[in-house]
Specification:
The radius of gyration is 21 Å and the shape is globular. It has one domain (28-224). It contains 10 helices and no strands. It has 225 residues and is mostly helical.
């Protein structure tokens, strides 16, 4: 019992002034214990977590974010799949091709979707904090963004998970900007506002591009007919 508590719950003791590594990046911890401790610190002590967010690694935060993002997407698709179960699929959804088969295909591609989302979102966050006056270094912004994805663990909440998780991620980004960069409250809020605006613009560009491609394909089909 004591060994289990030491592995999962008890935090290691550090000497005064000694750097406290992120649990996920601590080589002395096993994978499950490191993941649990990192997620626990993010959700229970986010200020302290980001206050000690040091290091230059990029692959470790990416691995953590990819795991939690993939799990969050799977949870979201699962709850939607339950909602579209027997009797839950409307005629409009059926005509649009939104059904259990499509959702299962999206679940299979969740890791790729999560990776693409992290890439686009990380660059948008980097630009946002730079415009808010936090400097142009990529690594700190990348580390904040990746670890802030811990809020996606709230996707496990049935049906209401996505909005709650979105608020959780934005809250962690806000705290991360304050603690890591030392930004004021308003500057951190400004970084979030810029981030959401850039994401909206990128989303609209992608949507318009897809609509244009579909319209062009439809025009080609008409010419061929």
């Amino acid at each position: 019992m004591m060994a289990t508590e030491e592995a999962w719950g008890a935090a290691p003791v550090f000497e005064p002034g000694e750097a406290q590594p992120v649990p996920w990046e601590d080589p002395e911890l096993s994978g499950p214990a490191a993941f649990y401790r990192t997620l626990r610190d993010l959700l229970m002590r986010p200020g302290k977590f980001f206050q000690h967010l040091e290091g230059e690694g990029r692959s470790e935060p990416l691995a953590f974010a990819l795991i939690i993002s993939t799990g969050g997407l799977l949870c979201a698709f699962f709850w939607l799949l339950l909602a579209l179960g027997p009797g839950g699929l409307s005629p409009e959804d059926a005509e649009a091709g939104l059904g259990p088969g499509v959702l299962l295909a999206l679940m299979a591609g969740a890791p790729l979707l999560a990776l693409a989302r992290l890439g686009v979102g990380g660059l948008c966050w980097w630009g946002s904090v730079a415009l808010a006056g936090a400097g142009r270094q990529l690594t700190p912004a990348w580390r904040i963004f990746c670890y802030a994805q811990g809020g996606l663990a709230l996707m496990i909440i049935p049906f209401f998970g996505p909005p709650v998780a979105a608020i959780g991620v934005l809250t962690l980004l806000y705290i991360g900007a304050k603690q890591v960069y030392g930004l004021s409250n308003w500057a951190s809020i400004g970084a979030l506002a810029i981030f959401l605006s850039i994401l909206f613009a990128v989303g609209m560009i992608i949507l318009l591009g897809l609509l244009s491609a579909l319209a062009f394909l439809g025009f080609l089909l008409l010419l061929g007919g």
